[in-house]
Amino acid sequence: MCSCFVCVQRYYIPTARELARLSQIQRAPILHHFAESLAGASSIRAYGQKDRFRKANLGLVDNHSRPWFHNISAMEWLSFRLNMLSNFVFAFSLTLLVSLPEGFINPSKLYMQIESWMITEASSYLFFSEH
Predict the structure, then answer these.
(1) Annotated domain spans of the chain
(2) How far apart are CA 75 and CA 57, in angstroms?
């Protein structure tokens, strides 16, 4: 199971780094355009070029949003793969425990283990979905 997690992680991490780099690259033109617009605000208003600068700003923001959207998609991809893997492990372990002979494992301890695993899984999903 750990090897599957490592394989998924090795695939995801370079992608996430590249997307973060692209996002940072796309942020610089927004800041530069904003600084230029502030410095020349009176000239922009005097020559009636507000709409042109507004459209240029929106275009830069759209370009910045593209890598961000793909980064969020990559996080969802990772979350889905890890959840599916953990669900398969959970289903396999439950099938194995149900097929064991009666009296081999105390049912109350088994229930506590399953319950704690489910709480941990739910809390980790909530944590990663917020960040």
Answers:
(1) 2-71
(2) 28
The DSSP code sequence of 83-126 is: HHHHHHHHHHHHHHHHHSPTTSS-HHHHHHHHHHHHHHHHHHHH
Q: What is the pTM of this model?
A: 0.62
Sequence-separated (6 or more) residues with CB below 8 Å from residue 92: none
Q: Which tens digit of pLDDT belongs to each residue from 78-125? A: 888 877 887 887 788 778 777 878 777 776 777 777 777 777 766 665
Task: Name the token pair of 112.
Answer: 């506590």
> Is residue 47 classed as helix, strand or coil in its secondary structure?
coil
3-class DSSP assignment, residue 40 = coil
- pLDDT of 125: 59
